[in-house]
Fold this sequence. Notes:
mainly alpha; 2 strands; disordered N terminus; two-stranded antiparallel sheet; 354 residues; 60% helix
Amino acid sequence: xxxxxxxxxxxxxxxxxxxxxxxxxxxxxxxxxxxxxxxxxxxxxxxxxxxxxxxxxxxxxxxxxxxxxxxxxxxxxxxxxxxxxxxxxxxxxxxxxxxxxxxxxxxxxxxxxxxxxxxxxxxxxxxxxxxxxxxxxxxxxxxxxxxxxxxxxxxxxxxxxxxxxxxxxxxxxxxxxxxxxxxxxxxxxxxxxxxxxxxxxxxxxxxxxxxxxxxxxxxxxxxxxxxxxxxxxxxxxxxxxxxxxxxxxxxxxxxxxxxxxxxxxxxxxxxxxxxxxxxxxxxxxxxxxxxxxxxxxxxxxxxxxxxxxxxxxxxxxxxxxxxxxxxxxxxxxxxxxxxxxxxxxxxxxxxxxx
Length: 354
């Protein structure tokens, strides 16, 4: 495949802007920052896991993550989950609820504005995101917008060019690169900051996190089906929470390193089925970075993409509306001109030519 010329890339961007009527932020996202992505992501500071880097470590985060993972391992290896099937099913349901708060709420709704939501759905998304217990929405949205705008550069909070470990969890264990802080101030956050619902949620975030992520989910098993307190605490506060965090992080690591690039071969994000399975459809990452405004975050809709399934259901009752998609013409143009040839249509075409 011949690399896309500047004129061709500009032509595609013009089509995408006209069809989707996206705002200035999304126009920047749609165009890969090829010049910046070619810069060296590290400056010799981050050579290995245990040393040779200058960035100060955040020991409270490191110790907390070690304790969390040790507790999760203990919980997974010492409990008879066959006879605790109610708790196992409950864990899957809770994981789906918290996952939807991240994928459908923080990511597709608040970060990318892929659709509009009525108040009941906004509240549901906020509660689901609270069950996930990650950073405040303000921090989550800002970091992800910076990630898209300056992907795979020093300004990317979880730059995958610095290796799997850093992009997966290491970025949370050390101080942010100065470029992340500097470029983060250039990202438009007025829509988030001006929303009174989000402002309230951010102001009382720790209360929301404690109640919806830890307290209520832990109380339900002992009171509703007589689960032991030890199992309830281990399953919710360690196993469920640890798995959710790692599934979310896998989008930053696995989905930026291992997979194919059917839509844009000159960027790092890839299509990864494993990530799509555990992260509710977020692993079709080459598509997502090529068309960040698309509410489906994938071409195939509901296949390995249960976030899209839930959004479609809310759309049917009118709580989600103005769902943005990408036209088949634009998708086909990207596949033919900028993809790596791995898309099924390109493979079929090669077979016919032979």
